[in-house]
Structure formats: C-alpha cells, structure tokens
Amino acid sequence: MKYTFQFLVASLLLMFLFQSCAKDHCTAERTYVKRTPVFFTKAEMRQPVVNESPQELIKPGKIYVYHDFFFINELYKGIHIYDNSDPSSPTNIGFIKINGNVDIAVKDNILYADSYHDLVTIDISNLYEPIFLNRVEDIYTFHDYGEDQYLGYYEEEEVTEMVECNSNSGFRGGVFFQESGPFNASLDGTQQGGTGTGGSLARFTIYGDYLYIVDESNLYTFGLTNGALPNALSEVPLGWDIETIFPYENNLFIGSASGMFIYSLVNPGTPSFMSNFQHANACDPVFVKDNYAYVTLRSGTWCDGFSNQLDLIDISSLTNPSLVESFPMKNPHGLSISEDNLFLCEGSHGLKVFDITNPEKLDRNRIDFIRDFQATDVIALPNGLLLVIGEDGFRQFDYSNPSNLKEISIIQTPR
Question: Which domain holds residue 81?
C-alpha cells in the first residue's frame, strides 16, 4: 500500500506538471500600442527652419499661449500659429516648419523649440513673419545606431493580435517597444512677465531668466540673458522615465513614471534636490496650488501604469511630501487650475471640472463633465478662457460659470 500510494502521488504530480506546461503554451488576444522607431541621419534631422503658409491641423501635440496668440504643435513637423483676438473665431495665420518639434516656450518675443536633439530660437516680435535666430546643437544625447543613423521618434499604432499567454517580452503598460528606450522631447513656459503659458504635459518651462528642460533622465538649465542664444548652465541626473516639469514659487515639480521630484531654485542656475514622492508606476502630469500638488496617474501607456487616479499630495513641507488621498478617475491626462476650479482631461472620456475649495473632498465636488470628445491637455487662462487639446482637435470654452462650460470654438482634425 505504501508503494502504491507513492506511485499515485507521483502520477498525480506528473499530471499536474503536464497540465501546467500545456497551459503555458496557450495563446490569448492582446491589444497594445506598438512603437516603431524612425531613424534619420543628422543632416536629415537638421533641416532649415522655414515659415510656411497656414497648414491644416492633422496630428496635434501640445498647446501654448502667448498674449492674443496660441500655438499648436504638429507632432514632429512644426508649429501652427493662431491669432486668438476673437476666441469665437481663431485665425490660422501661419506655420513654422521645425523638423522633429514637440515642445515650445516663449519669453520676451523669443520662441524656444526643440528640433529632435537640438534647441532652436525664433524671433516672434511679428508673428506674421517669424525670424529664425539660432540653433543650439545636441542639447540631448543622440541615440547612435551606427552608420550615421539616429533615433528620431516612434510611430505609434494600436495593434490587436494573438500572443503566448505568459509572454510579456517587450510590453510595458500596454505598449510594445521595437527598440529599448522611448524618445522624449520637451515643452512649456509659465505666465510670468514676458513669458507665455503652456500645459501640464510640459517638458520645457521658463522661470525668471532661465529655461528648464527635462528629457527621460535629466534636468537641463539654460540661461536666457542673451535670449537669442541660450547658455547651457547645468545638467542634473534625475533617474529614468522623467515626463513633465512644473514651476511653482521658486521650486520645480518634476513628474516621473514612479514619482514626483521637488527641486529648489534658490540658486536658479543649478537646481538642487529637496525631496521626492513615490507612487505606483504610471504617467503623471503635475499641477501645484497652495499646499497641494495634484498628480494624475493613468494606465495604457509606456509608463507601466495600471492605475487611473488623481493623487492629492500635501507639500506644506517641501522636504517631506505626503499622500492625502487618491481619487479614482477613468483615464486622466493633463490638468489645470484657476482659483478654486480644477479642470482635468480624461482622454477619450472628455473633460471634468471640480470645485477644490476643500481639496480633500474633491471627489464629492465634481461640478461638470463634458463627454464625447478627446481631451489630452488643458490651459485655464485668468480671463475665463479654457483651451483644450486632444487627438480630435482643439476646443475653447468659456468657464466664467465653471459648472456649465460653454464651447465657443473648435478646430477639428480630419476624420
């Protein structure tokens, strides 16, 4: 009996192992974002900056406001310029062709824009006739693939296919990488004196006489005393998966896939580390007001994210930030705040508005939710004008009554 029992146990174990192995070879349907690298030579990347006639908005990127004008980035192509003197009917007045452009910032009539791994400056004293000034080469590290081939950007495509059940090779948060390491560019500027206003997906920001830029792993500081030719001052390693930058009261708040960093600008030429706040892996734009940082985390990206939430972080002690509350969301992207109103982009779900008079009860105070359009980033201007960008185009709203937003104009992309 003893040997029979042992034989039975061994048989059952072998059967279990066989079934487990069989399961290991099953297939399942998986939907992911496929990112295919696009390569160029340096000569191809450094094409001249050219003024062109107004172009149709095809693939909108980020938005930026400067006086009565706003700019919309056409991903990797350049910048659309609109006269917004009449927000109900913005006028497309021109296009600046900038190869590899994603982000911009403006100070004192000088526009700063990325061009793949370079930084270009443009005089926009007359926005009807912009003048190219200079190109600062290699502000980012080139990804050299040999034989004068360099990574420019990734083409993204949603793909559904059958894969091995236990296969995670190449996948990160619903995104498949053909090559390691995502390409990153830059953006933004804040309303301060002669500067403009950018969105919360910023990788550029201007504060005082300095331009701050983040790529996937570093913080770069440029002096703007000679605005036409930025002066590189410092480079600070931050880690990996750095995404956004936001200036507030002499500090920089930097969003990464794993947390938020706070850097002091007491010495603006060399920002110094103060603290960091860790969260679950997810892409995270940051917006700051008073003693709170508002951080959105979303799934379905290359950031390994599986959370869809808004984190409220107490920053009353900048050296020891702490989580107050996490509020569930659908798929939060960019955000903006005006007085006690928080505007939050929910991707394909639309735009939400919250009263944040009491930030800790934000989830009980949603005052509007506009659906049926795509919202990626938003800028709330003090004059009651709300600018929203998404994959399907650009919209402007009157938010003088935040609980009942009124759409006043739209620029749609081709269907």
Answer: 32-412
